[in-house]
Design brief:
Shape: globular
Distance between the termini: 22 Å
Mean pLDDT: 82
Largest sheet: 4 strands, antiparallel
Strand order of the largest sheet: 1-28-27-26
Structural class: mainly beta
Strand content: 35-45%
Number of strands: 35
């Protein structure tokens, strides 16, 4: 059954109409940066306004109620831009090689690994940090990556060989684990770590590689530079890389600032809007409604999205704007987002909402089956099936009529 589901889902190319729109949460400023959702469901956001003004807010904001109220952490502000959890601690990485750490979000300590770089100049923000194979890796923008084997008690530099193909500095935007290897990506290319000597191998020259995700057996990396010849590169083995572009109608905006996936459903933010695809990037659906527009005097139609994550049927995203003050943290209800199109709904008398999937023509006997993305059957029923008890996430449904005809689709609970 798993093979059947996989092939059916890959063949699916649906036209979807999205009803929901982005709604602004009560985040207090217009300059959020990274969003992180902790293992216990807390939403964490780094705030970036101190970069533009000494009077800026800055710091780490936390919400326990899905963005309705926010509290600021009682720690020194170092423009924290990337977060992770490891060994029971929450880590926040900021400028000048500073790391804030806490176990309970009340008592914090600041760690410092600047001594590795033998400089008194201010080190830039840290965009790249990851917990991989028992070690934490991080890299100030423009500097060599460092790692710690004991959660911040001792720091060691990796060997920068291979990371600076143009001898202009090491500018990394992120790390990502793929098939038990660690990859880095940034302003000059895509790299892979050799743990034997903590050296880096250049895999591809690629400018402004700013976002990455693993979907199935592929690692995808996107580029945030307008007019680039390709929007994405992907690999299935880490050695052989292939290119992909947005459809022709978006070619002038071949730039993706951030991307995210729920199982095999892709979400991207580009200069022309916010889109998702459920057919391996063959077609895209615009979900930009409600996302704030930038001042028409500027060339980009939308304010910049810096990150997005999923929690309890909502997509959360940070919109950064230091010009028109329209930024903030936004959320989009994507529960029930993916389903068969309206034409097929009418023809087959199928209804899908947040609570049920039903065939409402009593003259058509129909078996409704629900599967998770791996192909494992979750439940089945005739004519109508309750989905309100499913955990939030992506699912596949199959409807089989008495004449053996079947219809298959995906939905997000």
């Amino acid at each position: 059954m798993k093979n059947f589901i996989t092939l059916t889902a890959m063949a699916l190319c649906l036209s979807v109409t999205v009803q929901a729109q982005w709604v602004k949460t009560n985040f207090p400023t217009s300059m959020p940066n990274d969003i992180f959702i902790t293992s216990d469901g807390r939403i964490i956001v780094g705030e970036y306004s101190k970069m533009y003004s000494d009077e800026g807010a800055g710091g780490i904001y936390m919400s326990d109620d899905n963005g309705d109220t926010w509290q600021i952490a009682d720690i020194a502000n170092y423009n924290y831009t990337v977060f992770l959890e490891a060994d029971g601690y929450f880590y926040a990485f900021g400028e000048d090689a500073k790391v804030a750490r806490t176990k309970d979000f009340e008592d914090w300590e600041i760690m410092d690994y600047k001594f590795l770089y033998d400089t008194e100049e201010l080190l830039l923000d840290c965009y790249a940090a990851v917990y991989y194979n028992g070690r934490i890796y991080c890299a100030p923008f423009g500097s060599t990556p460092a790692y710690t084997e004991n959660f911040g008690e001792k720091w060691i530099l990796t060997d920068p060989t291979g990371l600076d193909p143009f001898q202009s500095g090491v500018y990394l935007y992120g790390f990502i684990e793929f098939k038990e290897r660690l990859y880095a990506y940034g302003g000059d290319g895509i790299f892979r770590l050799n743990e034997d000597g903590y050296t880096w191998e250049l895999l591809e020259l690629a400018f402004y590689a700013t976002s990455a995700m693993v979907v199935g057996d592929r690692l995808y990396i996107s580029f945030d530079v307008q007019g680039a010849p390709n929007t994405f590169m992907y690999t299935e083995d880490g050695d052989n890389w292939h290119t992909m572009s947005l459809p022709e109608e978006y070619a002038d905006f071949n730039s993706v600032g951030c991307m995210f996936s729920i199982q095999d459903i892709f979400f991207i933010s580009s200069l022309k809007g916010i889109f998702y695809s459920n057919d391996n990037m063959t077609s895209w659906v615009d979900i930009s409604e409600g996302w704030p527009m930038e001042n028409p005097a500027y060339s980009n139609p939308y304010i910049k999205m810096t990150s997005m994550l999923y929690k309890d049927k909502y997509l959360y995203a940070a919109g950064f704007d230091h010009i028109t003050d329209q930024g903030g943290v936004f959320k989009l209800d994507i529960g029930g987002l993916l389903s068969i199109d309206n034409k097929q709904n009418k023809e087959q008398n199928i209804i899908i909402n947040d609570n049920i999937i039903a065939v409402y023509d009593k003259n058509k006997a129909a078996l409704i089956e629900i599967y998770d993305i791996s192909g494992k059957k979750i439940k089945e029923a005739y004519q109508q099936i309750n989905i309100i008890d499913l955990n939030y996430g992506a699912y596949i449904y199959r409807i089989t009529y008495s004449n053996s005809k079947t219809f298959t689709g995906k939905f997000i609970r």
